[in-house]
Amino acid sequence: MTKTRAKTTQVQRTSIRIFSEELKKKLVEDIEFKRISIREVVNLYKVSGTAVRKWLNKYSLNKKRSTRVVVESASTESKIMVLLDRIAQLEQSLGKKQLELEFLHKVVDLCSEELGYDIKKKSSTMLLNTSGNATTRVQTL
Prior knowledge:
Layout: H1 21-32, H2 38-45, H3 49-59, H4 74-115, H5 119-122, E1 124-128, E2 135-139
Antiparallel strand pairs: 1-2
């Protein structure tokens, strides 16, 4: 008869430990003034090194989180302002040209109604050649 042993596994339950902010701040201060090392805190309090580094980032007087600041030189800022002004001028000019074009189309439409035939299809221009005598007709679109 063979004996079989049943393997028993023990699950080690860890309790949730909460460290007070005062203790964290004191430990961070001790680490900063080299009274204790991160490794010693890890071993003494049975806490992970990652947790201690997070405390350092959060409570350290020397290691404040940095913020990203974009610094533009004055010349870059002035160039941007000049370009924005130029864009505004071009938009204004484009608007004027659009109004002129719409006006001319309306005039052509009104003239076509008045004359009774489509001016757009029947328009042609007279061109003089270099001698100034002969004329030729060129159909315009």
